[in-house]
Amino acid sequence: MLDIMIVDDDIADRKLLRRLLKSSEEDRVFREVSNGRSALEYAEQDIDVIFLDHLLPGLTGLDLLERFVQTWPKAAIILMTGQGDEEIAKTAILQGASDYIPKSIMTSSALNRMVDNGLKLSRMRWKLEEQRRELSLFSDTLVHDLRAPVRAIEFLSEQIQTDFENGQMEDVYKEFDMMKLSVKRMSELIESLASHISLDGSANWEHVSLENLCERVRMALAREISDSCAQLTWETRNLSAYCIAPEIAQLLQNLVANSIKYAGDAVPRVHIDVREIEGGVHIAVSDNGVGIPEAFRKTVFAPFKRLQQTASLPGSGLGLATCQKVAKRHGGDIWCGDEAQSGTTIHLTLKARPDAPDQ
Fold first, then answer.
1. Does 204 lie in the same domain as 242?
2. Beta-carbon contacts of residue 48 (< 8 Å; ≥ 6 apart)
3. Segment 306-315, tens digit of pLDDT
4. Which has fewest Cβ within 10 Å: 2, 63, 88, 319?
5. Alpha helix (H) residue ranges in 26-107
């Protein structure tokens, strides 16, 4: 069903437009308003198509275009005028309109063709804009998320050198194997990030045990755990998740790394608890750190959002934003719990087998 808004101060023109558009076999819902202010009262609604008259009382259609594009980024916006004007048409398209039509040549076939073509164009434009934003964050995210495996490799190389000098060759061989796994995880992470921002990239969805994912986190954060004497524990109940394994491992890694970083003066204690829920799994990552004030619990997942009490600590503020992107891609949700008396608990839900994500 299409949700169509007609923004026109002429009642007769609105009636004509609705009649011409109703001739289509597709189910459609119509909203009629006479000015931009009334239109913006529907800002919370998912509007699919907007027919916007240029000559409105107060602000013109061109004046409203930018605001409409921001409010309904997926909508096809078609500007209408009493007479054809090439300059208005050109300006409208440049400002984000999907199409332009003089009222004098409106027909049912022309309007319905504009609706079909406009929807395809506007949705592709929205998709491209989303990809542009992803690309603008990609380099920062890549640097942020690769720090932990790089530190893990650095830590293991130091351990190998120490154990080699002490003649502990059995430990050296084990640490070499761990280093190989860390390099493999780094490669998987790069490929995963690349596919996450790709317009047509595909990713490897598979059933992975949560035990395996937690082990990946322990390995990637070996240096941080050793330096802070952190206690990382988990209870996975032999459950598994259908996911892009490197991404979920990275998500958990970000949460555990934050718990260690923001432990304050206490020895970090982090626990990952996995439980089965209807249609998937619920993962809770709890710690004994400084906690997140209630006023900030709904905004901590925004890009570059950092709390004042942690501003002096290193970080870009992208970690939790990345977590939210991964959770949404997996058809799940992530939020900061308010049940903890101290520390922080982050909750994550994953569907057993989500539908193919909208790239």
1. yes
2. 2, 3, 4, 74, 75, 76, 119
3. 444 444 434 3
4. 63
5. 36-40, 61-71, 86-94
Does a structural domain hold residue 304? yes
Domain co-membership, 210 together with 314: yes
Residues 62 and 143 placed together within one structural domain of the fold: no
| CATH code: domain of residue 97 | 3.40.50.2300
Residue 89 and residue 133 in one domain: no
Domain count, the chain: 2
Count CB atoms within 10 A of the CB of residue 150. Answer: 14
Rounded-to-integer distance, Cα 185 and Cα 188, Å:
5
In this structure, are residues 290 and 265 in contact, taking their beta carbons and an 8 Å threshold? Answer: no
**pLDDT tens, 209-220?**
999 999 999 998
- What distance in Å separates the CA atoms of residue 323 and residue 312, rounded to the nearest whole number? 22
Please check the confidence at residue 145 and state whether its pLDDT lies above 70: no
Q: One-letter amino acid identity for 17?
A: L
Helix (H, G, I), strand (E, B) or coil at 185: helix
Identify the DSSP state of 238: T
Backbone phi, psi, residue 78, to 5°: -115, 120
Residues 252, 144 share a domain: yes
Beta partners for residue 272, in sequence order:
234, 285
Which residue range forms the structural domain that includes residue 175?
A: 129-351
Residue 280: what residue type? G
pTM over the 0.70 mark:
no
**For 184-188, which contacts have Cβ atoms below 8 Å and span 24 or more sequence positions?**
185/149, 185/216, 185/219, 185/220, 185/246, 185/249, 186/146, 186/149, 186/150, 186/153, 188/245, 188/246
How do strand 99-102 and strand 206-209 relate by DSSP bridges?
unpaired
